[in-house]
Amino acid sequence: MAGALKRLVPLFDRVLVERFIAETKTKGGVLIPEKAQGKVVNATVVAVGPGSKNENGSVIPVSVKVGDTVLLPEYGGTKVNVDDKEYYLFRDGDILGKWES
């Protein structure tokens, strides 16, 4: 992680992710126009918050950890630019799933 990204710690149940890069070529080598490329729904978790609190005040931990590959909704998240890279902040409950290795 870059120096500025190390200082960015998500709050509560937020998860900071870096989306995978969209495919720009087919397997046959044909270039795909930008408008025809599908929305990337897979990402790598870069940082996680401590979790949210319930009514009793105890912390409910986040369900993913740094380095996990997750499935995201097509729309949503808050875009964050750090060192000319795009990252997205999602709530833990907005993440659709986690890919097992």
Task: Describe the protein's architecture and organization.
By secondary structure, the chain is mostly beta strands. The protein has one helix at residues 3-7; strands at residues 14-19, 42-48, 52-53, 59-60, 69-71, 78-82, 85-91, 97-99. The longest helix has 5 residues, at 3-7.
What coarse outline follows from CA principal-axis ratios?
A: elongated
Number of strands: 8
Ranges where pLDDT stays below 50 over 5 or more residues in a row are none
The secondary-structure element order is HEEEEEEEE
Tally of helical runs: 1
What structural class do you assign from the helix and strand content? mainly beta
Give the amount of beta strand, in percent.
Answer: 25-35%
CA-atom Rg in angstroms: 16 Å
What can be said about the biggest beta sheet? 6 strands, antiparallel
pLDDT averaged residue by residue: 83
Q: How many angstroms does the end-to-end distance come to? A: 22 Å
Helix content: under 10%
Strand order of the largest sheet: 6-7-1-2-5-8
In short:
The protein contains 1 helix and 8 strands. It has 101 residues and is mainly β. The protein has a 6-stranded antiparallel β-sheet with strand order 6-7-1-2-5-8, with no helix packed on it. A two-stranded antiparallel sheet has the order 3-4.
Helices, strands, pairings?
Layout: H1 3-7, E1 14-19, E2 42-48, E3 52-53, E4 59-60, E5 69-71, E6 78-82, E7 85-91, E8 97-99
Antiparallel strand pairs: 1-2, 1-7, 2-5, 3-4, 5-8, 6-7
